[in-house]
Amino acid sequence: MMERKDQIIACEKRLLDAFEQKDLSAIDELIHDDALFVYPNGLPVTKAMVMENYRSGNSTFSTIIPSDQVINFFGDTAVVSLNLELKGNYYEQLVSAAFRYIRVWKLFDGSWKVIAVSGVPIIESQS
Predict the structure, then answer these.
(1) CATH number, residue 13
(2) Which of 12, 99, 105, 113 could lock onto 32 through a cystine, CB 3.0 to 4.6 A?
(3) What pLDDT, in 10s, does the model give residues 22-36?
(4) 42 close to 1: Cβ distance less than 8 angstroms
(5) Residue 126 counted as domain residue
(6) Contact 46, 35 (CB under 8 A)
(7) What region, left, alpha or beta, does residue 22 occupy, with left being phi > 0 and alpha being psi -120 to 50 degrees?
(8) pTM of the entire structure?
(9) Secondary structure element (H or E) that encloses residue 22, with its range
(10) Residue 9 belongs to what domain range?
């Protein structure tokens, strides 16, 4: 049986691959219906809104590169913090930037599902 940390690493990879490949069935499977998101621009959104953005083509990412991943567990809940370098389009605007995300996964009947996500832009220091 796979250790919990390995399970979360696999879920994270599958989720990021699904976003990059626009695999709506995998995204739907991995995100809880009542999940809440806060985008890097501060906009609060629901899973339904995220799915519609990908379905309509308003969100498309050709490159998603994760790094600096940290995973902590609290019972049947995992909190993941990671950097993501994103390249693509969001509502017809070119996106090429780095963000720090925190994603919360919860175990439901043997399956990990995302229940919360928030991201902030990584701003280079001007020192």
Answers:
(1) 3.10.450.50
(2) 113
(3) 999 999 999 999 999
(4) no
(5) no
(6) yes
(7) left
(8) 0.90
(9) none
(10) 4-121
